[in-house]
Write a structure and sequence with these properties.
InterPro entries: Rab-GAP-TBC_dom, Rab-GAP_TBC_sf, Rab_GAP_TBC_domain. This protein has helices at 11-14, 35-47, 60-65, 73-80, 87-96, 104-111, 119-122, 127-142, 152-160, 165-178, 181-185, 190-206, 208-217, 222-231, 239-252, 255-267, 269-273, 277-290, 295-307, 313-403, 420-433, 440-464, 472-501; strands at residues 409-410, 417-418. By secondary structure, the protein is mostly helical. Among the domains are: 35-178, Helicase, Ruva Protein, domain 3, CATH 1.10.8; 190-311, Cyclin A, domain 1 (Orthogonal Bundle), CATH 1.10.472. Strands 1-2 form a two-stranded antiparallel sheet. A hairpin with a 6-residue loop joins strand 1 and strand 2. Helix 16 packs across helix 19 (295-307). The longest helix has 91 residues, at 313-403. The chain is elongated, with a radius of gyration of 60 Å.
């Protein structure tokens, strides 16, 4: 039955004007009301005491759901919102409109596109736009946390069509604070995400095929329902349908939004199942609002919405909160892990930096050691070269000695004849016993002998320069000793000179 509800609309009702979306504020609402309706409402309003607006008459619900007469809407809306004749709020409004706000530019931009199809707001700078600007600005100053958000101007405009600006401001404040609308506008839109989650769960339960189709096409509920919820359907749909929704919303609150949304989806289910992603979004933007332009269609939709069951809203809210808490818990754990990871990473980076410094120091020390080793290698190489040269000299010296071994030598200053090998035996023997020592050792020994001979000569000279009294035998002994030392020294000296000259 719901699927056939909108099928009785002729093409001229919603598709004759092409693909252009319906302008907000479209539709004329008749203020005509029968005598019977006025009498019935007069009795309800008389029973409904102004000083206790929260105590609603039993027959009120049925009357509101049948539609509040246009002539009485302003008064009934204020009574439903419990803001009728609030003098203190009126005085506050007059002060608020004199204050400045950072949202003025945004407000001015929005009022130019709010209800452009309605004559009251059509004139740029006219009374309607001026009143809309003041109400929007007053709320932005009043609620500094939310300020002004797009969507508020459509609700304020709907109110201004039924009451003065002061009263419209009071009802707007009540809608935001007392009906949960303000939470959906708060930073982060957390309450709006909750409402969208609840709508998804209701669709999955009541319209599973449409839910699956949207999932396959990539259509998410926020793409069409966010504006519905934030503006109370006032931004897209014809005025008669909008006012009817406000009637029931002020009576029953948030559940009405889900009832209307599910009813719209249900009545358009067949059309939506045949469309792709772009077609679905266009349908919500253009086609669906045009199907609700007549008063008859609006009444049928609202009547069906009252039959829509949304008792599981609380269950889905708890489900959403549980998932949110789980998500927050995991995010907190992730943050803690990231913090620990950051600390460990910083610690490891410090250790790596320290190790790199040590490695660099070791590299520098290795380079220094390598240089020292290279220097030692050069020294050893030079020593090996010197040793080789000394070995060569030793070999040459040995050969020369061996070659002249058979020829006796006579010292130039002595008549003593000796064998060259006998004279060189001290040096040759040492060279043969200690091959690592050079021939310079023998030369050093000869130099020591020369020093000994020189010392002996010096002592002899001193003694010869004495008083001349000495024993002749002693003199002979001394002569023998001196002759022997002189021969040995002369022999050594002669052999040294012979070795040096290579004779």
């Amino acid at each position: 039955m719901q699927e056939e509800l909108l099928d009785d609309s002729s093409p001229t009702d919603y598709s004759s004007d092409g693909d252009e979306p319906l302008l907000s504020g479209t539709g004329e609402v008749s203020k005509n009301c029968s005598i019977a309706q006025l009498d019935e409402w007069q009795g309800i309003l008389h029973e409904w005491y102004q000083d206790v607006p929260e105590k609603r008459p039993k027959a009120l619900t049925a009357l509101v759901r049948s539609g509040i007469p246009e002539a009485l809407r302003g008064s009934v809306w204020q009574r439903l919102a419990c803001v009728e004749n609030r003098k203190e709020m009126f005085d506050s409004y007059r002060v608020l409109i004199t204050k400045e706000t950072s949202c003025e530019t945004v407000i001015q931009r929005d009022i130019n596109r709010t209800f452009p199809a309605h004559k009251f707001f059509k004139e740029n700078g006219g009374t309607g736009q001026e009143n809309l600007y003041k109400v929007s600005k007053a709320y932005a100053v009043y609620d500094t946390e939310v300020g002004y958000c797009q969507g508020l101007s459509y609700i304020a405009a709907s109110l201004l069509l039924h009451m003065p600006e002061e009263e419209a401001f009071c009802v707007l404040v009540a809608l935001m604070y007392n009906y949960g609308l303000r939470d959906m506008f708060k930073m982060g839109f957390e309450s709006l995400y909750l409402r969208l989650y609840q709508l998804n769960r209701l669709m999955k339960d009541q319209l599973p095929d449409l839910y699956e189709h949207f999932a396959q096409m990539g259509v998410e509920s926020h793409m069409f329902a966010s504006q519905w919820f934030l503006s109370l359907f006032t931004a897209r749909f014809p005025l008669y349908f909008v006012f009817y929704i406000l009637d029931v919303f002020l009576l029953d609150g948030i559940p009405v939004l889900f009832q209307v949304a599910l009813t719209l989806l249900s009545t358009c289910r067949k059309d939506l199942l045949e469309l792709d992603f772009e077609g679905i979004l266009k349908y919500f933007r253009v086609t669906l609002p045009k199907k609700c332009r007549s008063e008859t269609q609006a009444k049928r939709l609202m009547k069906l919405s009252f039959e829509c069951k949304v008792k599981k809203l609380r269950k889905y809210e708890l489900e959403y909160m549980a998932k949110k808490e789980e998500k927050n818990r995991k995010e907190q754990e992730l943050k803690q892990y990231e913090q620990r990871y950051g600390e460990e990473r910083a610690k490891l980076q410090h250790e790596i930096s320290t190790l790199n410094e040590k490695v660099e120091q070791m590299v520098r020390e290795d380079r220094k050691s390598a240089g020292i080793i290279q220097d030692y290698k050069h020294i050893i190489q030079r020593q090996e070269t010197d040793n080789g040269r000394l070995h060569t000299m030793l070999d040459e010296l040995t050969s020369d000695l061996c070659a002249g071994a058979s020829a006796p030598l006579r010292h130039p200053t002595s008549s003593y004849f000796f064998s060259p090998l006998e004279a060189a035996s001290p040096y040759v023997g040492n060279a043969m016993r200690y091959p690592h020592k050079s021939a310079a050792s023998g030369i050093h020994q000869s130099e020591d002998k020369e020093k000994e001979i020189a010392q002996t000569k010096e002592q002899r000279t001193k003694r010869d320069d004495g008083d001349g009294d000495y024993d002749e035998d002693d003199d002979d002994d001394d002569d023998d000793d001196d002759s022997r030392r002189h021969r040995r020294s002369s022999d050594a000296y002669g052999w040294k000179q012979h070795a040096i000259r290579g004779d």
